[in-house]
User: Which sequence fits this backbone?
């Protein structure tokens, strides 16, 4: 066997020592924040067949050994700042399939032949712990890798004080929270290798907060990879064909003579364009963006796809007292009651061909209290913002007729306690979709002649409308049920209030306008009284 054949054989026998990566994998391994540090949470949100699990397991073993043995020793990312031995945790989808068919085979194939290791199986015969007795260089190691699946109870993820965690596909939130408790004392890193098809909370609570994805958390970074990043003979970015990479060796394996795209220099991958093209033909349209480009599937079903944090979220400011205040309430029997504060500004916008005014949503309340406490909190919030009564309070119409409080309705109770003028929401057939249409009209960019710029007709305060369960959280995750035209009940409370407000299409009235109206009405009332006294009426 000649030297080239021996080299090729050694590469096959020791794939971790000679790990070859595609562009998406390369970016994931060397990801840094603005401080030049590896962030504590790395997300590889990628399409299928990018090699997510493969590179995730490589990173698992690297942390177990304390170094990335496929890099040159003088490379800045060769050595990992972690104690050895250590304990790591891998979370995957199912115990019966993901572990024996995906996770364990990947670990077994990548552990160097120079390592001594052992595994421990669960009672069902599935590997649940790998102990690395020695490292790739024959030195004592004793690092342990625990394997858990998402079909197990969340508490099975507790009790492991992990030095690192690898999530292979998105974990359910309860499981993530349980595992996170085990890494607190060590401020341990974690990485996610996933196709973003489920667990949409990750998008809102992590991906959008990533420093390199428009957020401000420097300990979260996201790499988005496409299936095309793993293509060997076609650069999707440059639309360049590389036929040399379709040539096969004697084992019918592509030689990959060209390692980088001739135009953009990106690292070429390991699967053929023809295979990718045929695979994409099998995908449902709503899943294609997630499986091809690594884009979150749930975004394809959003009710308000136009929402953009850069455009629709504004930096908080004190709402002028002269702006017209409007409010909305969505009561609940068991869940918290949602209350939203809005202001109609003098700035004009066009909504379905009519002149209306820009709405700023500037605060909210989530309250699981009795009605007297709810009223007190509403009044405190109004006082904080410098007013006592809004123009109106919009209430879900069904709560104007439901009798839940000893035969009384929410409308009765709110009115009796002096909350202000209560309006019932429009509830005619077709009003839900009409409301969605009106909200979309408000969310469009409208030119401001005053400022000479364009901004949406409805905007949300970044701080006061933020937080889990708040208006921004709900609006950016509000989506239709799968294969249906009506919205899912998740994240619908504040979107419902906003829809009720949009159906009213409020027109700005200044306090002076209101005073003039009051003066006119008082004058008419006095005239009517005089006429009665004269016996004219």
Assistant:
């Amino acid at each position: 066997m000649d030297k080239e054949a021996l080299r090729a054989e050694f590469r096959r026998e020791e794939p971790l020592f000679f790990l070859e990566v595609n562009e998406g994998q390369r970016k994931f391994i060397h990801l840094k924040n603005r401080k030049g540090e590896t962030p504590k949470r790395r997300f590889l949100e990628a399409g299928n067949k990018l090699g997510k699990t493969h590179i995730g397991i490589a990173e698992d073993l690297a942390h177990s050994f304390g170094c990335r043995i496929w890099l040159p020793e003088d490379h800045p990312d060769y050595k990992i700042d972690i104690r050895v031995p250590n304990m790591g945790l891998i979370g995957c989808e199912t115990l019966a399939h993901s572990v024996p068919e995906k996770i364990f085979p990947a670990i077994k194939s990548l552990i160097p032949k120079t390592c001594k290791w052992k595994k421990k199986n669960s009672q069902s015969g599935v590997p649940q712990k790998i102990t690395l007795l020695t490292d790739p260089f024959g030195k004592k190691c004793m690092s342990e890798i625990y394997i858990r699946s998402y079909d197990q109870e969340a508490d099975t993820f507790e009790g492991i004080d992990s030095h690192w965690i690898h999530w292979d596909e998105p974990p359910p939130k309860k499981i993530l929270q349980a595992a996170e408790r085990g890494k607190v004392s060590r401020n341990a890193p974690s990485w996610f290798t996933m196709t973003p098809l489920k667990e949409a909370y990750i998008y809102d609570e992590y991906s959008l907060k990533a420093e390199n994805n428009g957020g401000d958390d420097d300990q979260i970074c996201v790499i988005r990879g496409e299936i095309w990043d793993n293509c060997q003979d076609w650069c999707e970015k440059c639309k360049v064909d590389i036929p040399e990479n379709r040539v096969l060796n004697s084992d019918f394996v592509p030689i990959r003579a060209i390692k980088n795209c001739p135009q953009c220099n990106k690292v070429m991958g390991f699967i053929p364009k023809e295979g990718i093209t045929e695979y994409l033909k099998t995908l449902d349209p709503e899943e294609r963006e997630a499986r091809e480009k690594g884009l979150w599937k749930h975004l394809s079903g959003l009710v308000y796809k136009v929402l953009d944090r850069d455009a629709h979220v504004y930096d908080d400011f004190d709402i002028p007292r002269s702006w017209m205040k409007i409010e909305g309430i969505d009561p609940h029997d068991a869940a918290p009651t949602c209350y939203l504060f809005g202001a109609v500004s003098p700035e004009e916008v066009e909504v379905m061909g009519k002149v209306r005014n820009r709405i700023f949503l500037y605060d909210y309340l989530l309250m699981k209290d009795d009605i007297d406490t709810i009223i007190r909190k509403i009044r405190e919030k109004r006082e904080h913002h410098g007013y006592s009564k809004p123009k109106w309070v919009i209430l879900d119409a069904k709560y104007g007729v439901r009798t839940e409080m000893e035969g009384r309705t929410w409308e009765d109770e709110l009115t009796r306690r002096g909350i202000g003028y209560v309006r019932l929401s429009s509830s005619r057939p077709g009003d839900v979709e009409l409301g969605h249409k009106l909200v979309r009209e408000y969310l469009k960019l409208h030119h401001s002649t005053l400022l000479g710029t364009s901004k949406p007709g409805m905007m949300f305060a970044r701080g006061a409308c933020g937080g889990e369960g708040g208006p921004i959280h709900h609006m950016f995750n509000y989506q239709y049920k799968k294969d249906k035209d009506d919205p899912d009940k998740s994240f619908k409370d504040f979107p419902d209030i906003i829809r009720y407000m949009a159906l009213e299409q409020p027109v700005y009235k200044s306090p002076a306008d209101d005073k003039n109206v009051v003066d006119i009405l008082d004058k008419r009332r006095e005239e009517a009284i005089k006429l009665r006294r004269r016996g004219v009426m």
Q: What stands out?
A: The CA atoms of residues 132 and 155 lie 25 Å apart.
